[in-house]
Amino acid sequence: MLDESTIKIVKSTAPLLQEHSQEIGERFYELLFSRVPDLYNMFNQTNQKRGIQQGALAYGVYLAGANIDNLKAIESMVERVTEKHRALGVQAEQYPIVGETLLKAVKDVLGETATDEVIEAWEKAYKAIANIFIETEAKLYQQTEQQPGGWIENRSFYVDQKVKESDVISSFYLKPEDGKPIPSYKPGQYLTIQADIEGEKYFHMRHYSLSDAPNKEYYRISVKREDSQDGAPAGIVSNYLHNEISERDTLSIAAPAGDFTYTTEEQPIVLLSGGVGITPMMSMLNTLVENHSEREITFIHAAQNSNVHAMREHVEKLVKENQNVTSFVCYSNPTEQDRSEHRYDKEGFIDLDFLQTVLSDNRKDFYFCGPLPFLKAINGALKEWGVPNEQSTYELFSPISTIEEA
C-alpha cells in the first residue's frame, strides 16, 4: 500500500506528465534504446518514426498516476497492455530498467519541477503499478502455455494459402509447421508475428487480428499493405508480408492474445468497421453465424470504395443465408462502377443520422474497429445517441490509450 503523502504527490503531478507526454516519451525511448538496444525488437519502429508510440507511453503512466488511489479504474488499460506484453514476450526482469529510464526521462523533461520528493513518489508508484503488471502477465503466460495446444514464446507456422482480398488487403492462412494442435481463441483477438527481414538490424513484431472463426486447423490473418503516405513511412512488416512472403514460407508466431471480444449475451449486436478494421469483425461475424447465434446481427462497414473493400462477397453470402444478419456499406470515394451498380448504401461516412436510419434503436451492443478518425467519429456518435459505455467496445490498432484523449 502506498502512503497518503506519496498518493497526494503522484496525483497532483500526474497532469504535468500528461501535458509533457510527447517530450517524456521521446526522451524515454532515446535513453532506453541507448541503454538496451535489443529492446528495439519489442517496439513498432514505424510507430516510433511516426511519433505515435512516444506520447502513448507517458499518457499511460499519467493515467495510472491519476488513478493511483483507485487502480480499479484502469483495469481495462491493464488488461489491454498485459495481453500485448504477453504476446511480445515481456519479462518481469525488464521492468526495473524501464522504470529507471522513465524516471530519468521525467527528470530531464520537467527539470526543477521534478524534485527529489516528486521522483521518489513516482518511483514508489511505478513499483506498485509494475507489480500489478508482472503478476497479471505471469498468470497470462501460465494460462497460455497450459491451454490445449498452447505454447509460450514463438512457434513456426507456414503459409498454407495467401489470398488477395482487395487491392490492399491479403489473407494468410497459417498452419503449424510441427503439425500439432493449435489452441482456440476468442473472436476479436490477434496473432503476433516476429519478422526477421533481410537488411533490418532488428527483428520486428506486429499484432494482426485473426479474421476467421476459431476452432479451425489454421489461423487466418488479413493484412493491409501500409504504403508511404503524406510523408509517413511505409509499414515495414505489412509490405514484407505482401511482397516477400509466399505460400509455404514460414513465420514465427506468438499464441493468440487480446482483450477485444464480444459478450455471450443475447442482446442485438452491431459490428462496425472502417478499412482493415474489418478483420476482427469478420472473426466475430463468422463465429456468431457458425455457432448458430439467434442474436440480431448488424454488420456495417466503411471503406473508400469497392477496390479496397475486403470480403464483401462473403458478407453478402452470410446475409442471404441467415435471416438474423443484415449488412450496410458506406463508401467515402465510390468508383463510377460502384455508383452504377449501387454497391453501397451511403456515400460518405458513418454518422449518427445513418446509424439511426438503419438501426431500430440504440439498445444493442456496439463493437467497432478501424483507423483513429473512424473510431473517434463512431465513439462520438454513440455517446451522442446515449449508448452506455458498457455497450460500446472498440479495438484500436495504434498504441494510443483512449480515443477520447487521442
From TrEMBL:
- Sequence positions that bind NADP(+): G275, V276, G277, I278, T279, P280
Q: Where is the FAD-binding FR-type domain?
A: 152-263
Top-rank EC class of the record's enzyme: oxidoreductase
Arranged from A to Z, the UniProt key words for this protein are:
Detoxification, FAD, Flavoprotein, Heme, Iron, Metal-binding, NAD, NADP, Oxidoreductase, Oxygen transport, Transport
Q: Which residues form the Globin domain?
A: 1-138
The residues annotated as site (Involved in heme-bound ligand stabilization and O-O bond activation) are Y29
Sites where the protein binds FAD? Y190
Q: Residues at site: Influences the redox potential of the prosthetic heme and FAD groups? A: K84, E395
List positions binding heme b.
H85
What are the catalytic residues?
Y95, E137
Q: Which InterPro entries match?
A: Cbr1-like_FAD-bd_dom, FAD-bd_FR_type, Flavoprot_Pyr_Nucl_cyt_Rdtase, FNR_nucleotide-bd, Globin, Globin-like_sf, Globin/Proto, Hmp
List GO molecular-function terms, semicolon-separated: nitric oxide dioxygenase NAD(P)H activity
**Where is the region Reductase?**
149-406
Write out the catalysed reaction. 2 nitric oxide + NADPH + 2 O2 = 2 nitrate + NADP(+) + H(+); 2 nitric oxide + NADH + 2 O2 = 2 nitrate + NAD(+) + H(+)
Required cofactor(s): heme b; FAD
Q: What is its EC number?
A: 1.14.12.17
Q: Which family does it belong to?
A: In the C-terminal section; belongs to the flavoprotein pyridine nucleotide cytochrome reductase family. Belongs to the globin family. Two-domain flavohemoproteins subfamily.
Q: What does this protein do?
A: Is involved in NO detoxification in an aerobic process, termed nitric oxide dioxygenase (NOD) reaction that utilizes O(2) and NAD(P)H to convert NO to nitrate, which protects the bacterium from various noxious nitrogen compounds. Therefore, plays a central role in the inducible response to nitrosative stress.
Q: Sorted alphabetically, which HAMAP family does this protein's record hold?
A: Hmp
Q: Read off the domain note.
A: Consists of two distinct domains; an N-terminal heme-containing oxygen-binding domain and a C-terminal reductase domain with binding sites for FAD and NAD(P)H.
Question: Could you tell me what this protein is called?
Answer: Flavohemoprotein
Origin organism of this chain? Answer: Halobacillus seohaensis
